[in-house]
Amino acid sequence: MPRDTGFPDADAEYDFLRARRRQVLARLGAWLRREPDDVNIMLPFDEVVAALGRTGERRLGQRVIQVETIVGSVDRGREFDRRFRPTSTQSRQRWERLARASRRGESTPPIDVYRVGELHFVIDGHHRVSVAHALGLTSIDATVTEITTRVPAEGIRLRGDLITKDYHRVFLDRVPLSQDRMATISLTDPWDYTELSEAVEAWGFRLMQDEQTFLDRPTIARRWHTEEFTPVVEMVRQAAIAPTRTDAEAYLWAIGERYRLIRSHHWDDAVLNTLRTRD
To answer: CA 269: distance to chain centroid?
Structure first.
């Protein structure tokens, strides 16, 4: 809880020094634990939207948003850490002025944010968000513009998570599945999206050869999911193989084993029993 001595000027100075100390301690702790560099870095709006694939935007007007949902910035990501603690003393006077106003109950303009999924990115009002964090406030007034994206923002915590989302978006470009079918595709390793897209394209090429006709990507994606992906996953599940993998990971594993063994083995009970012991 923030200190409240009844002297707003002194308390605001203490608030800033405490926020700076916590930022330094968080950075030191991350270094001691050998955590990735992006643990305490604010999420950059442009990178997030690029990874997810921007499809549109709409003005929502003024809303009350939860402070904990504000995770990034449009262009001020280096002045504050992930918890909006100041990374230097450069803006101390402005920060303390806002802290004094908040402690006195004075009104401040709403911040301006982009909303992506349930996440918010600050356009204007970084210092007000920083003060809100320092004073333990749970909500803040904001003017919100919602950004819609091709890939959902769920699951983004760190900057490194954008790699997975970016590969996911590229996979959708190559394999344009419907939303309900895409919900069944989940991969832990971002590179697996590339391997899966190549597997789908190869399957589609063989299908066009067999049927002697050209098929567009949406048609191939739909037929692959219905005629190949779903039956293979069902067989793998019924055989109790690869139980710890997602459906998409189980499919990749199965086709990998098929190509590896097809020249020297038959898919009989002995082979399946051997594969069970390997998972």
So the answer is: 41
